[in-house]
Amino acid sequence: MKSAITVLKEQFKHFNLIRRISLYELRNNNNANYLGLAWEVLSPLIQIAIYWLVFGYLVSGGQERVIKNPSGGEDLQFLPWLVSGLILWMFFQPAATQGSKSIYSRLRLLSKMNFPMSVIPNITIFSKLYPHLILIGIAFVIMQITGYTVSIYIVQLPYFVFAGFAFTYAFVLLMTTLTTLIRDVQLLLQATLRMVLYLTPILWTSQNLPYFLDLLMKLNPLYYLVEGYRAALMGEHGWYLVNSWEYTLYFWFVTLLLFIIGSTLHMKFRRHFIDFL
Description:
Elements: H1 2-13, H2 15-28, H3 39-56, E1 66-67, E2 76-77, H4 78-99, H5 107-110, H6 119-145, H7 157-181, H8 184-196, H9 211-217, H10 221-234, H11 240-243, H12 245-269
Antiparallel strand pairs: 1-2
Helix pairs in contact: 1-12, 2-6, 3-4, 3-6, 4-6, 4-7, 4-10, 6-7, 7-8, 7-10, 7-12
């Protein structure tokens, strides 16, 4: 627990540094492109269009796919249902894959810098958070166009954005330490995340699965976040934060457990990271 508190203090102390460097990296990564930072939004939008075409029309025989409403109301349109869940994945997946190698890829640089290594994963996550917030704005517009007008449930959205950020940092802090110690972890993570996309109700719904399989899928904390985003943007799950309070407690238990384990390992090994260069 002491390690977790230390890491948390480091994030608050160096918040301005994290923000400045993340913005610099975001610009630097797109300097060679004619459209620059616009690609940070255009690329996800192209992926959304592809998923909409394939899973919204082609897999249903050319007819527009609809999703059965879990609350028993009218069927849900596939596009807003897809977008409200997919934007969370488009934040988590690149933040996890790039954040997990953020320390070992900068070890030579870090040996000359005077700030704690625990802020490095957060720099990567923040650089992915800015485009994510823009995508949330685009998703909001799509909701209005497709008939899912803003409701009181939208006030849940800041909570779920924060929850997604917290879980991502806890997960990445653990993975970046393991990846620095064992390079194979990075390859394993990339392969696993390809599978996790299909084990999360982003492209499909788990309503028709047997109860025990549905329960098994819900062990994935991303399930909670995806459904929370849909509750906030589409208003179809009501007060998901409160109505699913058991799942809320489970999500934060997993997040805190990952953060404590990740912080403990990070503090234990970070003085020796340079030895693994």
